[in-house]
Amino acid sequence: MNQGDFLLIGVILNFSCFVQMLEFSRMECSQAAQDKTYDCSGQGLLSIPDSLPPSTTGLDFSFNTLPFIHNSTFIKLKELIDLDLTRCQINWIYEDAFQYQINLQTLVLIGNQFMFIADNAFSGPVKLKHLFLTQTALSTLRFVPSENLNWLETLDFGNNDIYSLQFLSSFTTRNLKNLDFQLNGIQKIHATDVEVLKHAVGLNLNFKGNDIIFIEPGAFDSCQFNSLDFSGCLDEADLSVILLGLKGLSTRVLKLGTYEDTPEPTDITPTSLQGLCDITVEELSFQLLHFKDFSNTTFQCLTRLRKLDLTRSHISFLPSNIQGMDSLTHLILNENNFRNVCLTSAQNFPALTHLSLKGNSKMLQFHQGCLQALSKLEHLDMSHSFLQTGSCCGIQLKGLGSLLHLNMSYNSKMSMQGLPFSETPNLLLLDLTRTPITYSGSRGPFHNLHQLQTLNLSHTYTNTSNVYLLEGLQSLRVLSLQGNSFQSGVIQDSEMFKCVPKLEILILSECQLTAIADKAFEPLRELKYVDVSKNNLFKFNGHAFAVLKDIQLNFARNNIEIIAVEQINLMQPSSKIRLSYNPLLCNCSNLHFITWYQQNMDKILDPEETVCGSPMPGTRVADVHLSCGNHLLLIILLVLSAVLISTLAAVAGRKCCIQSVHAGSCSYQRLETYQQLS
Ligand SMILES: *[C@@H]1O[C@H](CO)[C@@H](O)[C@H](O)[C@H]1NC(C)=O
Ligand SMILES: *[C@@H]1O[C@H](CO)[C@@H](O)[C@H](O)[C@H]1NC(C)=O
Ligand SMILES: *[C@@H]1O[C@H](CO)[C@@H](O)[C@H](O)[C@H]1NC(C)=O
Ligand SMILES: *[C@@H]1O[C@H](CO)[C@@H](O)[C@H](O)[C@H]1NC(C)=O
Ligand SMILES: *[C@@H]1O[C@H](CO)[C@@H](O)[C@H](O)[C@H]1NC(C)=O
Ligand SMILES: *[C@@H]1O[C@H](CO)[C@@H](O)[C@H](O)[C@H]1NC(C)=O
Predict the structure, then answer these.
(1) Count of C-beta atoms within a 10 Å radius of residue 276
(2) Are residues 603 and 657 in the same domain?
(3) Which Gene3D superfamilies does the UniProt record give (predicted)?
């Protein structure tokens, strides 16, 4: 490192603005509540403020200006544990820069363009654990002094120009948990460079977004990683080259997918997967790769997998005779081109607990018993998949007796008869959002779902007049009826809510509601949150919520102008209400409410957005000052003085007053006075 040359450039680059800004340096640091950590970020500071106490353990100094770090920069802060110097325009770190920070554990140097880091820059901290060198224009690992970094757990080199792993061997990897090389220019990985990673246990190693063309076969032999990410690395290389290099590796997670659909997607052929037979892996992601064709050898090396992610892998079917996939518990088939659920050949994966078929690109037929073999299935997600069920769901869900979570949101119209979920009586969660449902039957469609805790029926065109709708849902805690309409816009004192005594969260937003009956929610003693936002309510009916303790009410975006204080006082003391985006009147007609509001701000949610409608739109209700009482006093005074004056006038001249009987509108009183006087 030629320090002299760099010094000159550095001085020229930084000195002028350094001097300019020196005078404006000021202390703008905030202390985290009752803590020894300070946030000085983005304050235009040019040095560490003297006012920081020596006991400071955490300092966020990011987005300030600190071109040089030398042995006295942090001299006062000897207790530092965490130091964030993100984007401080640091170019130079001199000898012994952190010599007094023996407890330093985290050093964040993201986004600084280093020209020089002294060999013993990191001497001092005895146990530096986390070092972030992301976006620091590094081109070689040699630049980073590794001698004193014996306890590193995190070493982040992401987003640099590193093209080789040479000199990685100079780092101590014994405790390393996260080593990140994402978004660099690494093309070749040699066995000698990564030999040192054999000492790490449970490492997360990230090569995401490098253009790997070669890995020396067996380079990672006998490494034991937690995860290894080669996603976005396959633009140039064949998958088999990477897999050959990973021979002998054991890793829990292996990511081989990519991120954007390249014009020529990388093809996966049965032979390119052969290398997987020599790798021990539990979770494998092929996201966005292109499965060219299947043969009976495609899955031959995947038999020990527990989780397989085939998101957007351009698949329209899986072969029906895959052997040995008995360990697979999670299968992700999102964003593919299936035309029928049966084409997933689910019988190949008898141990599945999680199956996701989200975002299918084609109309997806769901016929009888396609998933029948999945007796252990607990989570099934078929949202956004153009699902065509016709009459649902008894025959389709046949055999899925263990199912707990079912997501069929955003699909085509479903008609339900009788007991649609007869096959899945253990459901805990059912999400039918934006899947129009029609139901015919004399009892409730969900009446066998005694365990169900969450039911999302938002925007499903559900017939809410059916008092049996919620029958049997005795465990239900969360219910969304958002976007469905109620007869004449009123939540009635109906029988409906009697079936769900455990309900805690009720969403009734966008239901075109105009009123809520007094006893609508009376059976719901556990209710904690009611959302009636985005309706047409013009009144706050306190009776409906009077029995509920600790409730939060969301009345945002309605048409409420005036609130009667005796109504809002019916709420239990610990309750809270959101009234934002209502056209609240801020004149004397609403004086009582505004006074209540300002005295009960602790009950108001979102006060910043709770603003007036007429006559002062946009003013926060909290800031309104009305002087209605004074006006009243003034009027009384005026009336009194008028009476007084007229009385005096009457006494003064009777004749004059008699004449005015025919002239003025106020004369009745005067006439009366005259009569009394005479
Ligand atoms: C900082 O380094 C300079 C030059 O090496 C040395 O003279 C000085 O004593 C050092 N200061 C501290 C506080 O260590
Ligand atoms: C794979 O299929 C080919 C022909 O389709 C067949 O000859 C071969 O026996 C099959 N191998 C296995 C292991 O099933
Ligand atoms: C169901 O799927 C939709 C769309 O993928 C998602 O937004 C929603 O959160 C899922 N529901 C649950 C309960 O996870
Ligand atoms: C339906 O509601 C549940 C519970 O609030 C929620 O977890 C889920 O994400 C909602 N579904 C959609 C599609 O938003
Ligand atoms: C809704 O349910 C009520 C009561 O069960 C019934 O009378 C009415 O016909 C239903 N409406 C529709 C559109 O199905
Ligand atoms: C308050 O404003 C409303 C609507 O503009 C109006 O009808 C009402 O008379 C006003 N009240 C008073 C006391 O001025």
Answers:
(1) 24
(2) no
(3) Ribonuclease Inhibitor
In a domain, 362, yes or no: no
Q: Whose CA is nearest to atom 7 of ligand 6?
A: 589
Whether residue 645 is contained in a domain is answered as yes
Indicate whether residue 383 lines ligand 3 (CB < 6 A).
yes
Ligand 4 contacts CB of residue 454 (under 6 A): yes
**Are 532 and 479 contained in the same domain?**
yes
Domain hosting 668: range is 639-677
Note whether residue 247 is domain-resident.
no
Q: How many CB atoms lie within 10 A of CB 153?
A: 17
Q: What is the b/e burial string over 182-195, where b = at least 16 CB atoms within 10 angstroms of the residue's CB?
A: bbbebeebeeebbb
Question: Which amino acid, residue 552?
Answer: Q
Determine the residue type at 429.
L
**pLDDT tens digits along 231-289:** 988 877 788 889 999 999 999 999 998 877 666 667 788 888 899 999 999 999 988 88
| Residue 73, ligand 1, Cβ within 6 A | no
Instruction: Answer whether 589 contacts ligand 6 (Cβ < 6 A).
Output: yes
* Domain annotation covers residue 672: yes
Residue nearest to atom 10 of ligand 1 (CA): 71
| 312: number of Cβ within 10 Å | 22
pLDDT tens for each residue of 498-530: 999 999 999 999 999 999 999 999 999 999 999
627 CB near ligand 6 (under 6 Å): no
* Structure tokens belonging to residue 125: 């901290």
CA dihedral 68, 71, 75, 78 (to 10 degrees): 110
CB 482 within 8 A of CB 509: yes
Nearest CA to ligand 1 atom 9: 71
